[in-house]
Design a protein that fits this description.
about 50% helix, about 5% strand, globular
C-alpha cells in the first residue's frame, strides 16, 4: 500500500506466491525492520531485490548516541516526522483475535505513512551525508536476512566430542586451582577443610589431607574473599546500576596478575569455563528441525559494526554468538556444509584500520598498509613495546613476539574506538604514565 490506499492480504487463505512476480520486480519496497519481513518472504521462496528500511535509516542517523536517547520504532518516527500517532497496542492481537477489524486497520497503517517518513528521513540523511551509507545498508540487509534464514549446520557428533574435551580441560584447570589453595592455605578454614570422620563403610583409609572448599562458580561467597586476602583490588563500577561492586571477572584479574601466581591459573580456568558454558550444550539446544542453527545478527551497532546474538523474544533464550567462536581448528571444523555446498571464508583484513588511517592521515600506518606487510597489529606492538628490538622487521613480529602482538590489539582497538590513556591503563593494569606514553 501507500498513503492513499492499502491492501491487507490474508495469507491463511490466499497463496502469497501469487504475488511473486510483483514482489520480485525491480520496484522499491519500503519496510521497517526489513530483516524480519524478508525472512518471511524467503520462506515462501520470494526474494525481494530492492528495499528501503526506515529502521536502518534511523539507526544510521543516531549512531553513537546513548542508549534510549532516540527511539527507533515506526510509532516514534510517525510522531517525530508527521505528528501522527500509530496505535501499537493492537500488536499481537492477531494471535488470539485473528483478522479482526482493528487488526486489519493496524496492519494497513503500518504501510500508510512509510513514503512520507522516507521523504523526511532522506532530507536529514542528505544533510548528514549519509545517503550512500544507507544505500549500502539497505543492500546488506537483504543478504543478512538470507544468512539468518539459511542458518548453519553443525556436526553434532564432532561437537559432542569437543564438549567432552572442553569439560576435561576445565576440570584439570579446576584441580590446579584447588591444589594451589591447599598448598598456600592448608590450615585456613575459610578456604580448606579436613575430613576427620570419613566413611565407615568405604574400603579406602581415612584421607585427612586438607581439601579446597572453594566453589569456583560462587564468586561473591567464595572467590572474592580469596582474592581480597591476596591483595587484589576487586572494586569495579556496575554498568547497569552505576554503583561499585566487587568482581573477579577476568578483566579485573588480568591487569593484576603479577600480584599472585594464582592469577594465571585462575585465568586459565575462567577461559576453559567460558568455553564449556558458552560453546557447549546451548549450541545443540538451538538446532532447528531443519538441522541448522538460526541465530540473530544485529545490523549497525553503535560503532557501525555487526554483532551477533541477543535474546530470542519467542523463547526467552539467548541466541548463540557465531561471531566470537574460538579460532581453533577443532571448533571451526564442527560447522559443516551439506553435500554439494562449500564453506567460503573471507576476511576483510583490517578494513577499519584502513579507514581510520585514511581519516587520521596516519603516515606510519598508511605506509605499512601500502608498502609494508599490512600487519597493523604487529606495527602497533612495535610502537607500543620498546622491548621489541628496534631492528626487528614488522613482518617478523607475529612469529617472534606473538604475545605482544596479541596484547597490542587491545591498545589499537582502544584508540580506534575512543579509548584514552585511562582505558589502556585499566585494561592492561599499568600505571597511567606508562599508558599515556603508548
Amino acid at each position: 500500500g501507500c498513503f492513499d490506499f492499502q491492501v491487507v492480504i490474508d495469507c491463511t487463505t490466499i497463496d502469497i506466491t501469487l504475488y511473486k512476480d510483483f514482489l520480485e520486480s525491480d520496484r522499491l519496497f519500503l519496510l521497517w525492520n526489513a530483516k524480519f519481513d524478508l525472512r518471511f518472504f524467503l520462506h515462501k521462496r520470494i526474494v525481494i531485490k530492492n528495499v528501503y528500511d526506515g529502521y536502518l535509516a534511523e539507526k544510521l542517523m543516531w549512531l553513537g548516541y546513548p542508549l534510549g536517547f532516540h527511539n527507533m520504532g515506526l510509532k516514534d518516527a510517525g510522531e517525530e516526522y508527521l505528528g501522527v500517532t500509530l496505535d501499537k497496542s493492537i500488536r499481537g492481537k492477531i494471535h488470539y483475535a485473528g483478522l479482526a477489524t482493528d487488526v486489519i486497520e493496524y496492519s494497513a497503517n503500518d504501510v500508510k505513512y512509510l513514503e512520507k517518513i522516507r521523504e523526511k528521513q532522506l532530507e536529514k540523511l542528505k544533510e548528514k551525508e549519509l545517503t550512500k551509507a544507507l544505500e549500502l545498508e539497505n543492500r546488506f540487509v537483504i543478504v543478512l536476512a538470507y544468512i539468518e534464514y539459511c542458518g548453519v549446520r553443525l556436526d553434532v557428533t564432532r561437537w559432542k566430542a569437543k564438549m567432552e574435551k572442553d569439560l576435561a580441560l576445565m576440570q584439570s584447570k579446576e584441580e590446579a586451582l584447588n591444589n594451589w589453595v591447599v598448598t598456600h592455605f592448608p590450615n585456613d578454614r575459610r578456604f580448606t577443610a579436613v575430613d576427620l570422620q570419613g566413611d565407615l563403610f568405604a574400603d579406602e583409609a581415612f584421607d585427612t589431607a586438607p581439601k579446597c572448599t572453594i566453589n569456583w562458580n560462587s564468586s561473591k561467597k567464595d572467590v572474592v574473599p580469596l582474592f581480597k586476602e591476596l591483595g587484589f583490588d576487586l572494586l569495579v563500577k556496575d554498568k547497569e546500576t552505576g554503583t561499585m561492586k566487587e568482581s573477579v571477572d577476568a578483566k579485573v584479574i588480568e591487569p593484576q596478575k603479577n600480584k599472585s601466581d594464582i592469577a594465571p591459573i585462575y585465568l586459565d580456568y575462567r577461559g576453559a569455563q567460558k568455553v564449556v558454558s558458552t560453546y557447549g550444550q546451548n549450541f545443540l539446544d538451538q538446532i532447528n528441525i531443519d538441522g541448522r542453527i538460526h541465530t540473530n545478527f544485529n545490523q549497525l551497532m553503535d560503532t557501525a559494526r555487526l554483532s551477533c546474538g541477543g535474546k530470542n523474544k519467542q523463547t526467552g533464550e539467548d541466541y548463540v554468538n557465531l561471531q566470537n567462536l574460538p579460532h581453533d581448528a577443532e571448533t571451526r571444523a564442527c560447522f559443516i556444509a551439506e553435500e554439494g555446498n562449500a564453506w567460503i571464508s573471507i576476511d576483510y583484513c583490517g578494513q577499519e584500520t584502513y579507514l581510520m588511517a585514511s581519516i587520521a592521515d596516519d603516515k606510519a600506518i598508511i605506509k605499512e598498509l601500502t608498502e609494508g606487510s599490512g600487519d597493523i597489529h604487529s606495527l602497533t606492538a612495535y610502537m607500543a613495546y620498546p622491548e621489541i628490538p628496534r631492528d626487528t622487521s614488522i613482518k617478523d613480529i607475529k612469529k617472534k613476539f606473538p604475545n605482544l602482538r596479541q596484547e597490542a590489539k587491545g591498545i589499537e582497538f582502544a584508540i580506534n574506538y575512543g579509548g584514552t590513556g585511562n582505558t589502556i591503563a585499566q585494561n592492561k593494569g599499568i600505571p597511567l604514565e606508562e599508558a599515556l606514553l603508548v
